[in-house]
Amino acid sequence: MKAKAVRLHAANDLRLEEFELPEITDDEILVKVVSDSICMSTYKCAILGTDHKRVHPDVAEHPAIMGHEFAGDIIKVGKNHQDQFKPGMKFTLQPALNYKGTMWSPGYSYEFFGGDTTYCVIPAEVMELGCLLEYKGKAYYEASLAEPMSCSIGAFNAAYHTQMGVYTHYMGIKEGGKLAIMAGAGPMGLGALTYALHRDVRPAMVVVTDLNQDRLDRAASLFPPEEIAKEGIDLRFVNTGKCTDPVKELLEISGGTGYDDVFCYAPVAAVVTQCSAILGRDGCLNFFAGPTDKQFSATMNFYDVHYNSTHVMGTTGGNTADMIESLELTAAGRIDPAVMVTHIGGLDAAAETTLNLPKIPGGKKLIYTHLQMPLTALTDLRAKGEAENDARFLALADIVDANKGLWCPAAEEYLLANFIDDNE
Questions:
Q1: Do 192 and 155 form a contact (C-beta atoms < 8 A)?
Q2: Which of 14, 146, 313, 401 could bond to 351 as cystine, CB 3.0-4.6 Å?
Q3: Contact 84, 55 (CB under 8 A)
Q4: DSSP state of 117
Q5: What's the rounded Cα separation, in Å, for the pair 131 and 134?
Q6: Partners of 205 in the beta sheet?
Q7: What is the pLDDT of residue 101?
Q8: What pLDDT digit, counting tens, does each position of 278-291 carry?
Q9: Could you give the CA distance from residue 247 to residue 259 in angstroms, rounded to a whole number?
Q10: Distances (CA, A) of 401 to 141, 274, 344, 405, 424
């Protein structure tokens, strides 16, 4: 079977190309990919090439399919898995395999397995690890976004707290505590916010900081503090760029005691230092944002580490349980991962979008792999339809506008029914 995919050949060398997929073995599964959301981690992979820990050294000879936040339909099942998986099932998967101590992962390490493709082959280890998940929802994008959501879910679950003189870590954020999401008005920060507000164990205060007022305003429109207050949570949005002394002002907001849980969503030394400075006693700092600089470091207050029991940790990705939690919360309507999405596009837009991701404003870029469409902001759908006299974009804009400007199942359904790759 022929597939069309964006593949990594070397650092800064992504190519959209057509190739032949091998016939699946008894231990593999053939799938049709429908949606893939582009992750900043994919950008890092693309610019680093073989310098990235997950990229195999012979990628020039065996190019890797990009993308790891994907969902679609099962097409053909090897006989060893036919008792569990059937053609026609929708699927998503947990890409953080960690198989036998390796860091191999779809979207980084496999020649025939990744998300920015029309079709791919899922290898045996995915099923062996229980990382291929049947998806029973309607919208493919929700399954794609379960992976980035699982990263924040994992970060919340990995947080821990202690008691004086007790050598036990109490896992998870502090219930009824004070939580800060620093540099958190971007897509991943908003995912963390919707989870913080609607999970079972919740804080009493959430403060989201950023330097971009437009992003903060959008976040506040999606999560109106006055509405969140009705649920017993004090939600604040703070532009630290407008603060004379950000640390002082953030501590004042906390009531002077600091924060129990702080999540750092930008690999910026100054932000890490601010995170350290606003920790309260036994405060847990999660350095969430992965840097590309292997020598990245920042100043932390080790007086507080010693006397106030503050601590720092980092998480990268979630596990399968985190992903299942994301899917269940989404299905129940408790979280809406669409708050992360600001752009849509076809497979023909994936390579350029990936290589320029930090320069493109907004949140998550959602790729539909069987469509040809330039990357388009949801806010530009109407203007594009008017400029090109294309009623399809106008209809899509109407659906999005009726959903508070957010991507939604109805929008995806219309897109897949009306925007067809003529070369398919």
A1: yes
A2: 14
A3: no
A4: B
A5: 10
A6: 178, 234
A7: 80
A8: 999 999 999 999 88
A9: 11
A10: 18, 37, 15, 5, 30
Residue 370 has φ and ψ, to the nearest 5°, of: -105, 15
Task: Tokens 């913080």: give the residue.
Answer: 196
Asked whether residue 360 carries a pLDDT value surpassing 80, the answer given is yes
The DSSP result for 10-23, as a single string, is: ETTEEEEEEEEPPP
Task: Classify residue 267 by its DSSP letter.
Answer: -
Mean pLDDT for all residues in the chain: 95
Half-sphere exposure of 72 (CA within 13 A, CB side): 28
Cβ atoms of 354 and 66 closer than 8 Å: yes
Identify the residue whose tokens are 């310098």: 51
pLDDT value, residue 422: 55
Token pair 């959602």: residue: 366
Both tokens of 241, joined, read 């760029």
Contacts of 68 (CB under 8 A, 6+ apart): 36, 39, 41, 42, 95, 105, 106, 107, 108, 114, 115, 147
Q: Which residue has the tokens 């530009």?
A: 380
Q: In whole angstroms, how far apart are CA 366 and each of 254, 307, 342, 353, 362? A: 36, 46, 8, 10, 12
Closest CA to 2 of 18, 25, 23, 24: 18
Q: What is the pLDDT of residue 424?
A: 55
- What pairs with residue 93 in β-bridges? 132
Is residue 281 a contact partner of residue 254, using CB atoms and an 8 Å limit? no
Beta carbons of 263 and 180 less than 8 angstroms apart: yes
The pTM score is 0.90
Q: How confident is the model at residue 423 (pLDDT cuts 50, 70, 90)?
A: low
For the chain, the residue count is 424
Is the dihedral angle over the CA atoms 397, 361, 234, 171 positive or is it negative? positive
- Cβ 286 vs Cβ 313: under 8 Å: yes
Q: Is 59 left (phi over 0), alpha (psi -120 to 50) or beta?
A: alpha
Phi and psi (nearest 5°) for 217?
Answer: -65, -40
